[in-house]
Amino acid sequence: MSTFLKRYQAGKRITVWNEIRALGAEVRSPHYYEDVKAVVDETMDRVRYNIDLLVARLREDGYKFVWPGHENYYTDRSRCLPNDDTPELITFLEQLTGPIPLVISSWMLRVGDLNLVGNHPKWPEPDMYTDALVVEFEYKSWGLEDHGARSYYEMEYNDWQSWVKEDGLETVGPFSLAFAPDVYHKVNVSGGTPYAIILPDAGADAIVDIYGKQSYFVDYLRKCFKWGGFPGFGDKEKGRDNGTIAELVVGLLDI
Asked: Is pLDDT above 80 for 146?
């Protein structure tokens, strides 16, 4: 019987991901773990290829990577790659919250922090609602002190525990780990809650919560790549990219 990895590499990517999601925490059993982990890592390697390609093309086009209102934080900091501290942060998170999905630990180890917020010279106006792809778990670009991400997560988790103790889990809901601001905050406009993943989760893929609507992390990335890293052009800014998205998506790998 073909392994998950061989079938994924043969093009059955959506089918394979649906099957390994259905396994839930069973993906960590000896029977499945190595094969499932290989699919997850292969997926994230393809993600990293796409991101490297997008960032290179944007830079060639004169794209200005900048967070509106926070220029000193984000100029030329679109990518912050994993380093020796990354495995320690993953261990810390799992000790704090319980297991994190395989796809998130793989992202952290193989892709790193990403922030595509900025402005393109071919777009009709600055600070459009492009919902630029942002996935940050280590917050390296924020200039935090050593272990700053740990302190932030510990504070967030302790606050969540206090809310649960006061109001109950049914009212508060599960712990969510933010990885990106919402579409409005990305252009320095007051908006809603951050995009987040639900923890703990021992499965392969992560559950992403965006405005209370849940989807899978890999599906979210697929949507982002469909729009060259700027899914807002499929929604709030539809048809206003002046042809840039068609150029950005050429040669991106399916995940």
From this structure: no
Q: Residue 10, SS3?
A: coil
User: What token pair was written down for 192?
Assistant: 């809603």
Angstrom distance (rounded) from CA 223 to CA 221: 5
| pLDDT reading at 92 higher than 70 | yes
Helices and strands counted in the chain (H then E):
10, 9
Calculate the dihedral angle through the C-alpha atoms of 164, 169, 171, 176, rounding to the nearest 10 degrees: 80
**CB count in 10 Å sphere of residue 112:** 20
Could you state, in order of their start, the residue ranges of all structural domains in the chain? 4-248
Q: What does the pLDDT look like over 59-91, one tens digit per residue?
A: 999 999 987 665 555 556 788 899 999 999 999
Question: Which residues of the chain form beta strands (DSSP E)?
Answer: 64-65, 79-80, 113-115, 118-119, 134-135, 175-180, 195-199, 207-210, 213-216
Spatial CB neighbours of 182, under 8 Å, sequence gap ≥ 6:
191, 192, 193, 194, 195, 210, 211
The three-state secondary structure class of 200 is coil
